[in-house]
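Continuing the batch. This is chain 6 of the set; chains 1 through 5 are on the previous pages. Same settings as before, nothing changed between runs. Recording input and output for traceability.
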Amino acid sequence: MNINKITILSLVTLVLFSCGKEAKEVTNNEPAIKVVVNGLATNNSEFITASGKTEAESSANLSTRMMGYVTKVHVKTGQKVGAGQLLVSINSSDLEAKKAQVDASILQATAAYNNAKKDYDRFVNLFAQQSASQKELDDMTSRVEMAKAGLAGAKQMRNEVMAQFSYSNITAPFSGEVTNTFIKEGDMANPGMPLVSLEGASRMQVTAMVSESDITKITNGMPVKIMVKSLNKEVSGKVSEVSGSAKNTGGQYLVKVTLNSNDKSILSGMFVNVQFPISNTTKSEITVKSDKVMVPESALVKQGQLTGIYTIANGKTAILRWVRTGKTYDNQVEVLSGLSANEQYIVSSEGKLYNGAKVSIN
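Output for chain 6:
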């Protein structure tokens, strides 16, 4: 019985050994997959990328300085308006009453001035004929000056009231598009409360946030490239403003970029990537700056929530390396970790790759 067990065990061992040897021979005999590799991963590619968002160069949230009920909203969201067009009307019955009072004051002051002026002219003639004293002439001069000042004051009060009317009739400060209305008829408008949001029809601009390590390399007038993610479109622009403080922006520096052309397909609020060239920066500065690398998006492998890239081991084996990616720009993906700048990786292959596959480099 023991002899039979030994014999069976020996046979099983022999079969397993033979199968293992045969499997190994099959694996070794598989043809190598031809692949294309790049020389080295690109370290920072002599540009800085930053995320941003498009907005109109001219934009405003319109409000009022007076309190009153909204009598009519003359526009709707998305409507095109011209400069000076009436947008919102606020009840101004109290201003109408003040205006009537001021107009009455002007009439009274005008009559008083005209009367004083006639008396003054009469006393000037009497004084020339030596029929009036110097004191009488001085008194009439003071009277006409006081009447003149009273009339000027009444007119200035009217100007003040008329200025208040501009806050009861909200008009567009520039041509553009209504992007939002915050009130409706019957609402109470309060001083400083936004009523209508308006964006100009001029060129678009991009606001981007740049880190403190990169801001010193960005200057006014610098030409840049802008990738609009949702449209998969690249446009050109120019740096128009560079903030020198990150006090109120969470440690990031604000940079504004003006688009060179007015592309109607680019709408306000779209997310973009901005590429700032730093070709004057030396290679050593770039290397010290960061260990991030850029790889073609087509070279990456997606498996669920994981992202990987095939590297070369011993010049003949494909090894799948999991990486963490960052920003994407112009079909180039920033690799934050998992791949160093001195490692080769597979760009494309003539067959389906897998971890441990035999490969030959074209």
